[in-house]
């Protein structure tokens, strides 16, 4: 538990006090956000705001994790390192995309193929490694079984280990792409994606601690959790929580800095990685329900326009629909945070109810 607290506190302080220094660095070099002309007109005032702030989130998370392990003299685990690798790798892809946008002063960064290739390379590497490194209890960080609150009976390796490996890589790739892009779509208003991420990471701190306290290694039973490194995954989630919290101080309206694709891809990857390694893949749909709603709004908008030539929303993603309806940006963000909190509460309620019912 000390490591969890250390990780959150150190990451928070690093992000809170490191972000203004990073802002000065970006301003000095003229690295400002490019704003599309076809977006909400109120966003034009944000042109030139420093971006690529996700680098601070990633750096603070890594620093918090390392200090927590050093302070408690506890070696990092495979699961924790893999999730951090996924987070950092996707962050690097996002950083390259952001840098190209800034240097070219247009909304196009990496070409779609190059960006997809970068995301896929990181995700596939994570997926392949997650099925290695068996512990003494014959557990790997991930499982070929599709999970909800724990592994279900649906095993992707139903036709053999080779088929299972291929299907798991595809499943992990789908999850990582979906969640990284989901956070990216949500990152359209000051503090919206950052605040929502704080709530979801907080839920994974609780889930990791609960799974650790009811691990099959320590407390065997019908409802124990067969997760390889649950406590260290709680440390990772706590570090990400603290770094997002500190960054939110500067990212809240009016934002002094944006996280950019550097942050949104990294945070989405971290969430997907935590879901895969804690065996809560489908539960993340509830915990991150706001990300799902916003992603669905884009799917519905595009699908409706292609099929009927009509738009369902004034503009997608969903938060911009309410902007064009006259809602103030701060009002939208706070109300969406409330919705995100309700989804997190529902997800945690389902998680705990499953354990209680099984007793």
Report on the structure:
The chain has about 350 residues and is mostly helical. It has one domain (about 1-285). Helices cover about 65% and strands about 0% of the residues. The chain is built from 12 helices and 2 strands. The chain has helices at about 1-30, 55-70, 80-105, 110-130, 160-185, 190-215, 230-250, 260-275, 285, 290-310, 320-325, 330-355, and strands at about 145, 150-155. It has a two-stranded antiparallel sheet with strand order 1-2. Helix 7 (about 230-250) runs antiparallel to helix 8 (about 260-275). The longest helix is centred in the C-terminal third of the chain and has 29 residues, at about 330-355. The mean pLDDT is about 90.
Question: Helix and strand layout, with pairings?
Answer:
Blueprint: H1 2-29, H2 54-71, H3 78-104, H4 112-130, E1 145-147, E2 151-155, H5 161-186, H6 192-213, H7 230-251, H8 260-277, H9 284-287, H10 289-308, H11 318-324, H12 329-357
Antiparallel strand pairs: 1-2
Helix pairs in contact: 1-2, 1-7, 2-3, 2-7, 2-8, 3-4, 3-7, 3-8, 4-5, 5-8, 5-10, 6-7, 6-8, 6-12, 7-8
């Amino acid at each position: 538990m000390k490591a969890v607290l250390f990780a959150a506190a150190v990451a928070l302080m690093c992000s809170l006090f490191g972000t203004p220094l990073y802002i000065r660095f970006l301003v000095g070099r003229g690295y400002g956000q490019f704003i599309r002309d076809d977006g909400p007109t109120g966003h034009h005032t944000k042109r030139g705001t420093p971006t690529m702030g996700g680098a601070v989130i990633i750096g603070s998370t890594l620093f918090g994790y390392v200090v927590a392990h050093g302070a408690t003299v506890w070696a990092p685990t495979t699961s924790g390192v893999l999730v951090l690798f996924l987070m950092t790798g996707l962050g690097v892809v996002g950083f390259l995309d952001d840098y190209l946008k800034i240097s070219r002063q247009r909304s196009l960064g990496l070409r779609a193929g190059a960006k997809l290739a970068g995301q896929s390379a990181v995700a596939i590497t994570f997926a392949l490694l997650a099925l290695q490194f068996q512990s003494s209890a014959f557990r790997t960080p991930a499982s070929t079984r599709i999970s909800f609150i724990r592994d279900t009976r649906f095993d992707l390796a139903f036709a053999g280990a080779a088929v299972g490996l291929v299907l798991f890589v595809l499943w992990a790739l789908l999850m990582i792409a979906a969640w990284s892009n989901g956070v990216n779509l949500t990152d359209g208003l000051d503090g919206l994606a950052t605040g929502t991420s704080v709530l979801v990471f907080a839920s994974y701190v609780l889930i990791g601690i609960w799974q650790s306290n009811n691990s099959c290694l320590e407390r065997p039973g019908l409802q124990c959790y067969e997760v390889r490194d649950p406590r260290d995954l709680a440390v990772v989630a706590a570090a990400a929580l603290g770094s997002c919290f500190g960054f939110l101080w500067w990212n809240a309206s009016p934002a002094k800095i944006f996280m950019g694709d550097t942050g949104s891809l990294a945070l989405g990857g971290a969430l997907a990685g935590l879901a895969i390694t804690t065996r809560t893949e489908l539960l993340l749909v509830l915990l991150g329900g706001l990300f799902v709603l916003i992603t669905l709004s884009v799917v519905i908008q595009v699908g409706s326009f292609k099929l009927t030539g009509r738009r369902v929303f004034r503009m997608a993603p969903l938060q911009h629909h309410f902007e064009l309806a006259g809602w103030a940006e701060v009002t939208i963000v706070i109300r969406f945070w409330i919705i995100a909190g309700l989804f997190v509460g529902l997800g945690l309620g389902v998680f705990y109810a499953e354990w209680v019912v099984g007793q």
